[in-house]
Amino acid sequence: MTRATTSKSQQAYEILRARIVEGRYEPGMRLVLAQLGAELGVSVVPVREAIRRLEAEGLVTFERNVGARVAEIDEREYLETVQTLSIVEGAAVMYAAEVPDAIDLEQARELNDLLRDSLADLEPVQFTRLNEAFHRALSDPCPNSHLRDLVDRGWHRLARLRRSTFAYVPTRAAASVAEHDRILELIGTGADPRAIELAVREHRLATPQAFLHRPGHEAPADLR
Prior knowledge:
Number of helices: 9
CATH topology of the largest domain: Four Helix Bundle (Hemerythrin (Met), subunit A)
Distance between the termini: 48 Å
Structural class: mainly alpha
CATH class of the largest domain: Mainly Alpha
Largest sheet: 3 strands, antiparallel
Helix content: 55-70%
Strand order of the largest sheet: 1-3-2
Mean pLDDT: 90
Strand content: under 5%
Shape: elongated
């Protein structure tokens, strides 16, 4: 592959990945190489390479006689990822809260205020980015490097699942901001670290439950 083709492949990959992550390409949507190439102004060769990379990331599936499609949401993987993240993040925030002034509460409050301000005209992808920044502001000061690494892996796993849950359950956004307020209050008043851990875990688990039980959707029986 020439350098020019590699560059075009990278460009195609970045554009297609962004469209999937932002929800512009819906789950199950067919990805026709020739059509995408025409849209991006490149041949099918760099598009094919980009699709292969996206398939390796789990963002695209390939079926014989059908071709490439945007991967469907794996609800079990999503739930299990958040369940695991709730445990390690809850512990990370608990340990961070035990270290005096380790958590920058002013920064966390500012981030939550930005989340609150965005509720009037909710943009799910941007809300999700701010939400991650808020959560990381609480967990990153954790003195346990192994826990920090596990939390980071959880976030990367969620990113691979790619979709903003708030696009499916926008009403969950306001509840999430209110729960952030409660967590900040617990940290700011020096509450029992175990109460902080529990609040973080319950907050984490509330979002996938809202997603699985959203109106018009029937979750698999074993996930209800």
